[in-house]
Amino acid sequence: MESLAVGVLFLLALGWVIFRIYKGFCNPADCCSGCSGCMDNTRKHLSCGRGNEHKMLATVFFMLVSLAVAGPVFAEVSDAQVQALIEQNQALTARLQKVEAELSKMKKEKSEPSAEVVSGANAGEETLTPVMALAEAVELHGLLEAEAFSRRSYNNVDESDITLATMELGMDVKIHEFVKGHVLLLWEEDDTEPVDLDEGYITIGNTEKFPVFMNVGKMYVPFGVFESNMIQDSLTLELAETRESAVQIGFETLGFYGSVFAYNGDVKEESDGEDDTINSLGLNIGYKFEADEMGLDISTGYVSNMADSDTLSDAVSESVSGELDSLVGGAYASLVANYGSFGLIGEYVSATSDFEDGEFDFREQGARPAAWNLEGSYAFDLMGTETTFALGYQGTREAVGLELPRHRYLAGLKFGIFKYTTLGFEYLHDKDYSEKDGGTDEDADQFTTQLAIEF
Questions:
Q1: Residue 126's pLDDT band (boundaries 50, 70, 90)?
Q2: Each residue of 360-405: pLDDT tens digit?
């Protein structure tokens, strides 16, 4: 800045000097007007011309000297300004790059889900924010079944109705890698009204990482498989399904699976008296195999108190108030297989000993009830719709006291009309026990249409 001021002052001084020099130049007209004669004028003109030439040369010389002196000053000023501009440009560029980096970081943080790292049970464990953790941990599932049926009973009485047969809403919650919770609510028209807590248990274990697991809570104990392609529940399920608050310890490895379980059954022995203790034990074991076009699931099991099944316990409670001389065990065997489009289901379940007379009778003596189910199915594509056709035969033995048929023949057809949505049709023909066995020896027929969604 000091060099710039010096240069400006020097130029002003140079301009003033040049002005004064040119102001002093002789004007020939003025000379002529000031001369008294031509000869004198001629001499004066010559004298003025020489004076002007001298002044011009002096002016040019003075300008050259001035430029020589001022040139470095202006060169210094120009270089300083250029250097200043370069430095300012570099500073602005660096600032712009910093701002762009900050904006890019902000956009990235906004587009990506944020995760909050908090202290877990173990050092270094990461837990997502509560909302994200809840969304990842909770899985909802449900079932709705609306049915319309027409039935003719053993007594030739016609019935028909439209019902919401089943409503299920379940939730599985993953609390930890090795801890899960399961809850299932059930509503069945004219049966479980209002809504019933059908299942609710805690699972400790993860068979994908360790073969052993434990379930504790209200559950259907693993006695029987009850697989079926039909709308109606199988007769094996009607006889043996058991829901209790229990503890189950099991394993799954290399296709093999099994478990042991225990619970405090509603049906007890008379010798228990006022005691109310865990009195029922059971176990199951099986093998499951799946390939590209083939699948196999075979299992068997035993329970020490089959009288505690949901159906038998009601019958026993009516006859002997739920107290038996001794507990009656039960066993089952099940096979579920498929090859390509063909499927096969076979299951048999039976008491392993007779009830005492008067506890649960058949032909006026203690019964040994049993049930079975045999089904064959074929899956195919019908005009772009997944379709399954199934035929089945079911039956019972010494189970007239449960109002179950002696024989049942079924045919079913199901269409996957939309995603998670099926439309099914079923026809069944029941044959009752003979009159000497305590039945009517009559036939009954039923046709059912079902619209169901499962998610």
A1: low
A2: 999 999 999 999 999 999 999 999 999 999 999 999 999 999 999 9
pLDDT recorded at residue 117? 42
Cα–Cα distance measured from residue 96 to residue 88, given in angstroms and rounded to the nearest whole number:
12
pLDDT in tens, 155-206: 999 999 999 999 999 999 999 999 999 999 999 998 877 889 999 999 999 9
Contacts of 19 (CB under 8 A, 6+ apart): none
Please tell me the total number of residues recorded for the chain in this structure.
Answer: 455
Distance between CA atoms of 251 and 209, rounded to whole angstroms?
12
Q: How far apart are CA 319 and CA 352, in angstroms?
A: 20
Measured in whole angstroms, the distance separating CA 320 from the mean position of its chain's CA atoms is 49
CA distance 207 to 345: 26
Distances, alpha carbon 244 to alpha carbons 226, 280, 285, 419, in Å: 17, 10, 20, 34
Find how far residue 117's CA is from the centre of its chain: 22
Calpha distance 239→232 (Å, rounded): 14
Residue entry with tokens 């026990």: 433
